[in-house]
Design a protein that fits this description.
mainly alpha; Arc Repressor Mutant, subunit A; Tetracycline Repressor, domain 2; 2 domains; Tet_transcr_reg_TetR-rel_C_sf; Homeodomain-like_sf
Length: 192
């Protein structure tokens, strides 16, 4: 019953935040759509901000699952790493991710690089870089430091894309710059 109630509230919150935005979504949107009371919302999430956090955790997990599948579907660890990073930046085009994760989330919850979910992302990127070093694809580098720089670059690119007047043009620029930047990690840089 508890997980069902939480699930209903998260689903209602997600729908309201995606369609109306955080500022315009009301407590009544969440509770009426879920067929629950405000008391249930307060009990499970404390307030609207707590519900937004729960929605972000859910979307973040879904994004992570998608990105893992993208990376695992590539022909090489390097191509999987590139595909995963580019896919993350391009997720900024998706309306729900754009609005909840990249516009409203930072405005309400603060700097996304400080969200608890970022630790898992940092660990994944660090592990990918270590695998690439171990197989000899990239030069020996401090894996965690490089992961922090890459995660910062992709997050800032996604934020830039999400807030751009012309997201497609910005995305193309961001991806091209990112690819040029990470190419410098390769032991054998491809000839142009």
């Amino acid at each position: 019953m508890i997980s069902e109630t939480r699930g209903k509230l998260i689903a209602a919150g997600r729908q309201a935040f995606a369609t109306k935005g955080y500022a315009d979504a009301s407590m009544d949107d969440f509770t009426a759509d879920a067929g629950l009371t405000r008391g249930a919302l307060y009990h499970h999430f404390g307030d609207k901000k707590g519900l937004l956090h729960a929605v972000i955790v859910q979307i973040d997990q879904e994004m992570s699952d998608r990105l893992t599948a993208i990376a695992n579907g590539a022909d090489s660890v390097w191509q999987g790493f590139i595909n995963e990073c580019v896919a993350y930046m391009n997720m900024a085009h998706e309306p729900e991710i754009r609005r909840i994760m990249l516009l409203d989330g930072p405005a309400v919850l603060g700097d996304p690089s400080q969200w608890p979910t970022q630790n898992a992302c940092l660990q994944t990127t660090t592990a990918s870089l270590q695998r690439l070093m171990d197989e000899g694809t990239i030069r020996p580098i401090p894996a965690e430091a490089t992961a922090r720089l890459i995660n910062g670059a992709t997050l800032n690119a996604a934020l830039w894309i999400a807030s751009a007047d012309d997201p497609k043009a910005v995305s193309e620029q961001a991806v091209a710059a990112f690819l040029a930047m990470v190419e410098g990690l390769l032991k054998n840089v491809p000839a142009r």
